[in-house]
Amino acid sequence: MSLSMPDLLSNEIRSWIGRVAPPIRLEVSRRDIIKYSIATEQTKKIHLEGDIAPPMFLFGTDKPLVSISDLTKDGLAKDILTPPLPLKKVMAGGIRQKYFREIRAGDKLLIQKKIADIYQKEGKSGPLIFVVYNISIQDENGSVVMEITQSRINR
After folding, report:
1. DSSP characters for 84-144?
2. Which of 115, 85, 114, 104 is nearest to 143 (CA)?
3. What is residue 65's predicted lDDT score, i.e. its pLDDT?
4. End-to-end alpha carbon distance in the chain
5. Which listed site, 19, 105, 128, 135, has its alpha carbon 20 to 30 Å from 10?
6. CA distance 71 to 68
């Protein structure tokens, strides 16, 4: 961090690092895979018949299901793992996904989301605050199916 940029990260904000959301349990249905595959114009038979979920199938499953009236001004659902930041405009910062095996119809999954890091950088238009989340997805036997690292940027 440069000397000219004020530190916007208080100890209270930094205390959010390591916080974990309540786990989400999800049973993957053949119908859900088929609906997602049709909506995203998949072409492979294994996806269209609902045997195996296509990539990105689990994107957003860590978000709560809410009515439109409960969305924030920027169209996002309120997330209990959103620290109170002084910069309010939210942007997507990136996502990395690591698959350990395919997601199949009938899978019973446990999704666990954690704040891995919060840090500040200077952008072209001023300070930026990055919040990095680690999302672990395990099957009912405790084996990791997928790991996601996702970041949000506040400016």
Report:
1. --S---EEEEEEEEEESS--BTT-EEEEEEEEEEEEEEEETTEEEEEEEEEEEEEETTS-E
2. 104
3. 77
4. 16
5. 135
6. 5
